[in-house]
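Work Package 4 report. The design task specified in the project plan requires that, given a folded chain encoded as structure tokens, an amino acid be chosen for each position. We show below one input record used in the internal validation round.
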């Protein structure tokens, strides 16, 4: 977001080149005519021009540095404002309106102070350049008057020389201002250029392998150890191994911090494991193009992202070019059609930024429909039914059950009731596999899963499973 009074780098430079070209012609032409009129005085002018260039270079760096800071402060202000606007209900619920006003006001004041310093630096640059040029011209005029007295040049020649001098001085002054504009644009663009030249941590290999046209979906983690960059001393996964056959559904359960979400992050290759290998259909995913890998995966997150736009567009985000019938079938399978059809414009209804007009359960059903439409061989479900009421959870579970047939599915489950029927449950703790089996087997074995089941179901149901 850019305020009305803030110039973009493009706006700064769009007219700068034409102004610079015009004044370079004036400056060059004026210097040539000066040398024709009086080489001695012309050499003095050249020395004066060099003298003017020194403050331009010194102050130009200052302007560039302040422009960079100004852009960063504007970005901070925009981010802060966007965050507050997206959290208005929370702000009002906790009656923090005055606090947020103060904080946002302080952010704006910091941005204004930096912008004021930048404007001051640019003004000083222009003023110093014009003053130096004018003082040099006055000094040269005095030397010219001395030459008239001594008979070296005529009065007419001096007048012509001074006129040419004004051309040169005007050119130098205009160029100094243009230089300030360019330095401001350069400073504002530095952050953007840094981002454009940033090398991704996960880059496609020089010669990526290709997945089959229709991957089977077998997955294997082989002695994987992974540390997040921000926590190099703590392993999120430690010697983690897991093999999943094509079409098999496996649930990952465990306490917070056990590494369940990390498994998904590595499978999607958002991060690369420091040790071990992860394979899809027997191919190490580090040898695949990340785009091709992710094209074989459908994801339903616990907190789904809904984009501003229509409901149909959000579902179709799962597969570009999907037909209206395919979108409707996906919505039916996700138990989303019943609430969509009640909306005034049905599938064409706008959901607002981040789906603000929908409930949590409705947003999650749209995310499930998006994953169904993607029709990928590997499904990653992160507690996909956590925001649904009992009735809709039943419908969605049926839709997911139909979807999971013939597809490899990895499910992160916090509510054990949602995965009791799965034949294989993997229990994780501190980045390791500490148990494996179906619900009844794990309860009978005791340990971590039995404790989690007892907390959620109570001792009666736990004993019944035994």
């Amino acid at each position: 977001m850019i305020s009305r009074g803030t110039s973009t780098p493009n706006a700064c430079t769009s007219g700068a080149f034409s102004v610079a070209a015009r004044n370079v012609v004036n400056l060059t032409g004026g210097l040539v005519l000066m040398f024709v009129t009086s080489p001695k005085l012309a050499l003095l002018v050249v020395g004066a021009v060099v003298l003017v260039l020194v403050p331009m270079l010194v102050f130009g760096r200052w302007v560039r540095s302040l422009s960079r800071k100004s852009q960063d402060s504007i970005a901070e202000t925009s981010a802060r404002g966007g965050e507050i606007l997206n959290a208005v209900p929370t702000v009002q619920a906790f009656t923090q309106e005055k606090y947020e006003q103060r904080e946002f006001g302080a952010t704006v004041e910091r941005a204004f102070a930096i912008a004021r310093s930048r404007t001051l630096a640019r003004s000083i640059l222009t003023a110093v350049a014009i003053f130096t040029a004018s003082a040099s011209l006055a000094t040269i005029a005095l030397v010219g008057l001395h030459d008239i007295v001594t008979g070296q040049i005529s009065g007419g020649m001096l007048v012509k020389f001074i006129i040419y001098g004004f051309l040169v001085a005007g050119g130098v002054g205009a160029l100094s201002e243009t230089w300030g504009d360019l330095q401001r644009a350069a400073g504002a663009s530095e952050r953007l250029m840094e981002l454009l030249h940033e090398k991704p941590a996960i880059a496609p290999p020089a010669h990526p392998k290709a997945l089959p046209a229709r991957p089977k979906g077998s997955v294997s983690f082989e002695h994987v150890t992974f540390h997040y960059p921000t926590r190099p001393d703590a392993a999120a996964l430690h010697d983690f191994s897991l093999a999943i056959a094509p079409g098999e559904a496996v649930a990952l359960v465990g306490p917070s911090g056990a590494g369940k979400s990390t498994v998904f992050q590595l499978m999607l290759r958002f991060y690369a494991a420091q040790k071990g290998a992860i394979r899809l259909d027997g191919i190490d995913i580090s040898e695949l193009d990340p785009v091709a890998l992710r094209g074989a995966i459908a994801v339903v997150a616990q907190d789904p992202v809904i984009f501003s736009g229509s409901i149909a567009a959000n579902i179709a985000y799962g597969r570009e070019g999907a037909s209206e019938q395919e979108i409707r079938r996906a919505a039916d399978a996700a138990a989303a059609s019943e609430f969509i059809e009640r909306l005034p414009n049905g599938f064409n209804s706008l959901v607002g930024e981040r789906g603000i007009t929908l409930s949590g359960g409705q947003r999650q059903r749209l995310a499930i429909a998006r994953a169904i439409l993607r029709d990928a061989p590997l499904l990653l479900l992160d507690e996909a039914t956590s925001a649904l009421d009992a009735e809709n959870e039943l419908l969605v579970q049926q839709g997911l059950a139909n979807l999971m047939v013939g597809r490899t599915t990895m499910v992160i489950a916090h509510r054990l009731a949602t995965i009791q029927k799965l034949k294989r449950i993997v229990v994780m703790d501190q980045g390791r596999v500490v148990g494996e089996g179906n619900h009844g087997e794990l309860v009978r074995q005791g340990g971590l899963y039995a404790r989690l089941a007892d907390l959620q179901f109570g001792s009666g149901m736990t004993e019944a499973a035994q």
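The first helix runs from residue 9 to 14. Validation will be extended to a larger panel in the next phase.
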